[in-house]
Queue: 4 jobs
Job 1
Amino acid sequence: MQASNGIYGVMAEFDSPNALIEASKKAREAGYRKMDAYSPFPIEEVSHEVMPGDTGVPRIVLICGLIGASTGFITQYIGEFIDYTYIIGGRPNNITNWASMIPITFELGILFAAFGAVFGMLALNGLPMPYHPVFNAPRFERASQDAFFLCIESADPLFDRGRTSQFLRGLNPLQVSEVAN
Amino acid sequence: MATTSLAPTRVPQLSRLQTIGISAAVIGIALLAVGYFVVGPDQFCRSYLFGFYFAMSFALASLGFLMLQHLTGGAWGVTVRRMLEAGALAMPVMGLLFVPIVLATFPGTMGILGLSHPLYQWADPAVVASDPGIAHKVPWLTPEFFAIRSAIYFILWSSLALILRAWSIQQDRTGNEALRARMRMLSGIGLALYVISLTFAAFDWTMSLDPHWFSSMYGVQYMVSSGLTMLAFLMLMFTQIQGTEIFKAHVSVKPIHDVAKLMLGFTVLWTYVTYMQYNIIWSGDVAENTPWYFVRTHGGWLTLVPILMIFQFFLPFFLLLSRRRKQNASTVAPIAALIIIMRLVDLSWIVLPSFHESITQVSWTDFAAPVGLLGVWLAIFAWNVQRASLLPLNDPNMEWLHVGGH
């Protein structure tokens, strides 16, 4: 957030998901990178435009999943084959028994991966966040109902208060407004 | 929505595929015919059953996914519908191809094929008389009832395939909106009957090769692994048809990504059912269940197990995790090809140990039969895909392809 601009960014409101897809595509083509879109439901094409590439969550999920799976396997291994080597039902108590340990291995893998997905997503989004400037935009509460917003942030190197507003007005929005910091 | 009548899409790659299918059918069946005299009628029938079971997984999965996509809608459904219809339309021919197996089951008719024992042990009165474990199952496992059941399966599957195709073509011609609801209704009923009939078909055709053994997961395993086979096949087809005008005009990357995601899901599902069947039987450790696995882990058959674990689960699973790779049909295609090859390995491991105690006894006709019978299916598939528009453009579901969302 550049203090010289004094504002968080410029916000445009659109009336349909397709208009938002179109606008985010044009903004990307115009060279804007620091922007975000707000819509009542996820629109894959828009996230592709405003935040292309990897969000970082998939890698966290994979690593957590692998840690969970190894935790599941190793704790069972220690329990059954090192600390309490009981023979149960005539089954071998050595590594040839590995297949019987798969359910727990799998389940801990899934559990840790799910934790990774939820908490990783929260952390990367910087949540919980008690204050965010976008809520200063007029009618922004409609973003969770029926309105579609595109915000170009003042942190973008191409950002210019006048020209960026001009640009967004050219995308056929319902309204364009500056967002106070 | 356009209501103009749609013309068939001409795709050179598909006519080439038809030629490949016909060639594979001719070569495979010719080799099988030579095999009849070289390796004998018994081995001929066993190989034929194996090849039939493999080819049948493509036809069955086509029908299953066809009904599923009528129920769920979605961009991937309309994109692949014509291919699924074409694959399911092979059902009546698959029914005809089943006739030799019926002949080999009846002690009265097995002489036509030159057999001295029926293909299935339970069809042999001498075996039944000396084995109370099999005699116990005889009310179900008789040649007559076996033939009647199979006839019912094929009549059911053929009717579903033909009716759904006819309505879909009618929709192409007239754009009648009521047809969508009608296809959905039939698919709902059809899918329930499909799951039941497929389960029993798997029990009849290959599980009963070892008449003592039983597993309630066996039918599910065949259904899931057939689904995986067909998804991999669809992905290979995408690489062939994605350059066509009609595809470029209507299909974005989303349906391809969706089919790749389904491939990942079905890879995990295959692993789950295959493993759970083993784990339940291993944990139960009951004498009438374990021999099936004993046979499949001795005589060299154990070597296929790590191959399946690595190439049917670990490798496709980790490769398909990447989002970017899944969005491009060309990068998923090698994984799809690997999956189809491993499907054949998996079915070999499931079916062939019932015939061969040792993996070294596998006959060359066990390779010729899947090639020949899959060739027949492939030729019918390619022919039917070319007889209609490649996308059902008059279907209201086409809007899925043009708006955001699934």
Job 2
Amino acid sequence: MTEETGRAGNRLRVAKATTREEKEAVYRLRYRVVVEEMQKRPDAADHANKMITDHLDAVATVLYLSDGTEVVAALRQIWAPDAPESHQVRFYELDKILEVPRAAMSFTSRLIIAPQYRGTKALGVLLAAIYQEGRSKGVWLDFINCAPPLVSLYEVMGYRRFMANVLDTDVGLSVPMALVADDVEYLTRVHSPFARMAAAFPNDPTHGAWFAKRFADYAQPSCARVMGTDEFVRYLTERVHVDDYPLLRGLADAEVKEVLHSGTIVRAQKGNLVVRTGDPGHDMYMVMSGALEVRGRSKSGGAHVLETLGKGQIFGEMSFLNGRPRTADVAAMTDAEVLLITREFLERLTRGAPAVAARLLMNLSMYLVDRLQNTTQGLVSMMEQRATPPAAAPN
Amino acid sequence: MPNTFLHSLTVDERAECLERGTLRARAAGEMLVRAGAPFSSLSVILSGSAEVRRSDGVVLATLGTGDVVGEISFLQGADGRATADVVTTTPVDVVDLSEAAIDGLLLDRPQTAARLYKSLALVLARRLQATSQRVGGVGEAGPTRSALAPKRPWPGAKPA
């Protein structure tokens, strides 16, 4: 369908998986990335054949990207009339959206990109193809469900939040988003690559107006690329007073803006697990409002509260620093806003503005010293209360 | 020396940091740091080993090649006081990086300074995690406490 030049100069080709061989190649790519690379154990995994597939694949359009020798990326789209009712209700509360005909809706999922093609054109090529696939069926409302670090990426494509976050047993906290595929005015405003493609199809401006009104509660975008730099930084600086944020101390105004600008706001509802033990994740979070609880899991499976976090405090720093899976759960005790800071941003900052990166990491170290001292005090007094000698034998 | 302070730096970064420091050679049984004394440099053990000891002699942790000493008081700046004794158990070579040395690194080699602080943050994050898990372990009655005890315990006793 489309051809692009790949990383090694190979031609990337998008195709629809129709044969059994093609479909199985896609299922194997899913397994390689999700189970072998990300170390997840989804229900749909078939470990004997090293594939991930479920009953929805039978009704989905599966698109894949090939570099000539192997499948390097894939995703699938399910047209709403073909999807089981339970799926629609569970993930997207479509029982509440009765005013849109089912034939105008689709669900896009299982996006997988092989490591060497991340950050390349592969994603754009695949999304463009699936956009056209949906529009050619008359779809104008597409749904996806994504992990918080990907929210800004989908916002740039033109997707918007429209309902509360959900907790997906496979992937942890997940943010449902919707694309009004023929809202040319909005797509143009956020510089979505779909804006240009929309011209090839009939577009109805009332759809965009309906969406904006219907889901006004979720209208606030989460990242600077969509909100516009000035507006986003204004939104954050109104809420962020540097004194409350140990991470930002000693930074010049322009540097604070740079850090805030790189972030994505994750809006968690009371009860949401923002970070889950064992999940992969390279991002650090800074609490902007609300209260969250850090919970450890013991080997026996019990959970105990390790700390309560409020404004200015940081969590997820361990995986941010060492790239390993999460070692604790973090749950929102109230509705909360947290700013997600990615490891890629830190790497970029270390190359481009290393003195700012050094200050940020020094601040992080000082913050950790404070927390370490508080935690240690807590431990010492707990041990004194129990009147047991501190178990501190050296190894 | 996986998981140590030096381990997270590349060979070049290590050289750029360490060449700014002062090398001290210590015999076995000498005090590297005294609890409660002002201590404002970051010290890195190049060879040998040392013990972190509480005032009553209880050993809190053992340190070896690549480990850092004095990071908490270093980060606290002027108010910094060592929180425990550190005593060598073998002959030890240690490099002291003064505040001025690290300020110099920030000016001339900011990228290396950033990596150094990242490495420091990682050491602290690990210790915080170990300590938090111990708090959790104490909170849970029974034998899980020893199972949760970190490899490098650091309950950071109050200075005498």
Job 3
Amino acid sequence: MEQLSFQVNELLQSRRYDPDILPDLERYVEAQCLEGAYDGDANLACLKLYQFYPEKTNVSIVSKILLKALAALPSSDFVSCLYLLSEKIQREAPISTIISWADALETGKFVEFWNSLHNHEELLKGLPGIEDAFREFMLAVISRTYLRIHLSLLKKLLAISGQDELFSFLSKHGMTDISDDDILRFPSREENQPRPKAILGEQLPLRKVLESLIHS
Amino acid sequence: MNGQEEDSRTFSSWKKNNTTDVMTSPDLSDRDPDAFHSVPESVQQFLSYFRQKFREGNVSEVHTLYETTFNRYSERYFKTTSWPSPEIVAKYVDDDEVFLLFYKELYYRHIYSRLVPTLAQRLEAWENYCELFNFILNDGIMDLDLPPSWLWDITDEFIYQFETWCHYRSRLKNKTEEDIAFLKDNEHVWNVNFLLQYLHAMVNKSNICPWLLNGNEPVGSSDPDDEDFDYSTIPVYRFLGYFSIIGLLRVHCLLGDYKLALMVLQPLDFDDNTALFTRVTACYISLYYYMTFAFLMLRRYEDAVRVLGSTLLHIGRIKQHHTRSYQYEQIHKRTDQMLALLAISLVFSTQHVDESVNSMLREKFGDKLTRMRQGEESVFEELFVYACPKFVSPCTPDYDRPMDRHMEASHLQTKIFMREVGQRLAVPEVKSFLSLYTSIELRKLAQFMETSEESFRSFLFCFKHKTFVFRGSSGQAPAEGNFVSCAPVSFYVDNDVVKVTDTKMESKFGEYFLQHIGKLQDFIQMLERK
């Protein structure tokens, strides 16, 4: 993987717009999917070559790039990919489905997202571990929204059915503060704490007003 | 070094193909035979003098001739026609081929700005750029010294003509079969790949990146005979390389690749008051316009506000020096576009801008800003379409289906941007709602909003996601930054209860009052004098 990454970045340095490097870029995308690695910039370069040479577009690669970018939220990679894809491709299945997933994820409709995902599981083939990447994004959003949350709700949001499964996922992210009545307390952070009512007004001293009166 | 060799190889091989193409292409000459007799004497003298100063390397005189005199003559003699063709001009300038390369560029640029270029002229303009750039890349202008504004205009016009070409060839409805056949056979003309390669080659040749990273100092020797000769020691190459970086920023924005657009700017130093982009106003404006536009598209509204705020202040200060310049109109238009970008960004940002920028904004887009804040999506679209660059589609259109598709690229970018706006409007809505409470059950809030608990929760998640933004700072390269929370209201949910602490940002009235004290004083003085 490391070698491939090095090789691709070399190619991008010298021949970024050469369609002959597409096979290498595509191979690199597949490798990232299988090994859980991510190189958003190289993937964008691949989409850009598809933009220049639409006849070379490989929809299955596009779909993988989009899913990887989606798993990289909150970065703007997903939208960066969309800017390079023609409307025609965006309307086609399965790309249109993936775009609807992005809409659901970005508007916080996590339950809806999982429902649609489970109806199209074939799209996740060749992308082991991607579901956990989506969960990590969700967990980050939830932990900025909630200070304490009931586990039953969390299970629904993260689409994790088993208690043990949930515990091991949470403990991986250092979230172990669970009370007897099944309520998880997230580690404190700026966003889930009461904030002082800081009023950032300005001070206008009389001296300044006088100065302006005298000068004019 | 490797990349550079590769580039020049591509060019020479391409040039060979190109020449054969031209020879086999139909006769494209459409020149007016009468033009021969009609070159006014003063124009002849001007051209001859222009060439003389050009050869002498008298930069300040060339600057005046280029910026002022040339435009004055254009206005007087060539308002509705082209300048005399280069073949005719040749005899006034001793057949100076180098000068003619540059003259030709001006000749076509004039046609593009005053007339409607024909297909043949578009092709010839492209060929002239190839010749000019190949000449430059082959050490042709080692002994020349030209004013930076001219070098900027060449780079900028090159991209502008590419832009118009992309639009031209995707409007197929009213094209003749001959035109379409010609377009089909000439794929290489204004090809995006060659365009990018020329810009990259210019950056590499000039050695500008090492120059910038070395604190604006060349890393090699200034003696062309030395082995480590450094092209950045020659001002024309240095400027051309630098301007090509900004050209790349523009091209990547036109193509919708905003991430790469910002990455290209990595070596630039924005804190340097003498940075090369400050030398030409049009370049300064182009740099900041495209950079902040890329911020907007990458959802970096906080950065867009920060940079637009200070840029508009600066332009306000320098604008007065340009009132008579031919660039004034353009500066004016871009300023208004940047104000529109600022208005959009402000809706999604928590920042305030300087009072003088604020008053420009109120005057120009006050009403629109209010309507956007109220969530009127059509206003966002209207301002976006007004302020966005002219996007291009880099690939060849489908010549067998004669349709007008030149707006497709624009529609696509607008649509994706509006998708984001639609999602993001949840933020002000949640804010206005939450600000009413300090502590309330989530279930009740959902009831008040006439929605289910689940969808209201989604709404809150959406708010938290959209207010967690990527933000850079003035000391960082444009592509760099960190994620931070920038929320207009802070809240958290404790089990089932929403707890809100509204952080009020007081508006700043002080400066406004001070300004009006001044105005009142002036007014009183004026009355007293009468």
Job 4
Amino acid sequence: MTGFVRTLRAAGVAADHERAQGFLRALEHLDAGVPGDVYWAGRLTLCAGPDDLPRYDRCFHAYFGGARAVAGPAATASVHRYTASVADSAEGERDGEAAPATASRTEVLRHRDVARLTEAERAEVHRMLAMLRAGRARRRSRRYESAHRGVLDRRRTIRDALKKGEVALLRRRRHTTRPRRVVLFVDVSGSMSPYAETLLRFAHALVRSEPRATRVFSVGTRLTALTAGLRHRDPGTALDEVSRTIPDWSGGTRLGEELKEFLSRHSARGAIAVIASDGWERGDPELLRTQMARLARQAHRVLWVNPHKGYEDYQPLTGGMRAALPYLDALVAGHSLAAYEELTERLAHA
Amino acid sequence: MDIESPEKLIELLDRHAYLADDGLATAVFLALRMRRPLFLEGEAGVGKTELAKTLAGLLGAPLIRLQCYEGLDAAQALYDWDFARQLLHLKAAEAAGVTDPRRLEGEIYERRFLLARPLLKALETQPSVLLVDEIDRADDEFEAFLLEVLSDFTISIPELGTIRAETPPVVVVTSNRTREVHDALKRRCLYHWLEHPSFDREVAILLRRQPACTEALARQVAEAAERLRRADLVKPPGIAETLDWTEALLTLGAQELDPDRAAATLGAALKYREDVEHVLGNGLLRRD
């Protein structure tokens, strides 16, 4: 049985020691000689979500159905494409550090389109992006703190009354606040590739400043969760990590479908949803429209970051942009460091 | 009650009008035997809450339900002190000339001034079935302290001491998966993913729960429900919705599912305006 658990782990099911113990205990109550009993005992104790179930079924059939060898999820080729460019920019970053920036050069850089920078200039922008300490708008939490004004704190009033022998003073309390959640969607399709790295670095800065209240997904042809990878302190390592995770670099964008998947599996309730994309939607704009409507009903605010918005003659003409526009609280630029600073301000006060 | 096998459990659940398959029966069987909470996940309306209710009926134990929502806190889930009665008691003591704070303190923090909320009530009621419904709607901080209660079935109250359940309640935790629940909580539980029932099972459930329903109508409703579930809706109908839909049709005296009556009663099965429009607009109720 432990061999089976090892096979499961190799296939990506997080069946730890405690779960394995649970599996063995469950078998004590069932008939370990009956395949159906073993199947259910394992499934109930070793799996933790619907994603685990197909893997579990594969392993079960491979292990108890004869053939024992089960390969882990096949590493897909082509996903490493981005790693090279991240490594390059890491070089560039060191170059940037070697040449300290003067104030005026920095000021000029702040407003330039990152897609048109040299490697060294971009590295410098990325270094400044890493130093961005983003504030965050706050929302009421369910915890309380004592305060002069607020609702009656019954527990403390009673405590005081006990000490003094009479109800002398009414104690009050109010809710504490906590950072409002941000859900960021980064478009990694082909048309966004000049901005993808900068956006992911911005995402890294957001995750680093509010790790518990930030969720990041890449969108393109598949919705991919990136938050865990972005928790690394070092931006280079974090980017390496997420570059390996993203399966659909430089493909098309099917934002409607991916938002739909997001809305059915996760939630943006009460959050600030931020979509970073140029709106070149390959899928059905009507689907995008309905999903944007759902997102807008759930989220506290919906912001759209479009790199092309930074130019004066920009018109939201792409099909995706037009479908989304009615549901946005704001459409903001995302082409330069200054634009990201402005976005950060918005997240602090949304 | 001694339930010796999952098969026996299927039979008992059937007697209480709940049709379970092998997987679910094994899950419940193990939860009872191993005294572990059962974590039921699945789309809305597949019968998660109903299972807990049926289980309570079957075990002859009261069902204690904690409906989760955003902002749920300890005072609503665990216990709270009865402030009004505590104050009255203090006033009465004052009038009677009792001023010894120690004595007063002992008195107002007695068990009789404690209001038991669902979690505490479940520990104090034996036997009982505790249903923690829609855990995904509570904040993630709440999970942490639910985990604490479910790990050793004790609640410590600073003013009173620790309350321990001699026999832990049967616990069913449900989630619609609108949010990923923390792994530590799931690890304490037996995890079961509940699917929509198969066609035959759905027909059987409709007939079992709606005695007035004919086999023909049940088959037509189940078939329509399958079609709706494939139709890419915001909220596909669960078994709870098909039961409501059947009831609505029976109320109108329908013997079979004709398109007009189906359209008129669709609100029992679909709960989003977009879905109703999509289904009617694409003629998904017509059989071909």
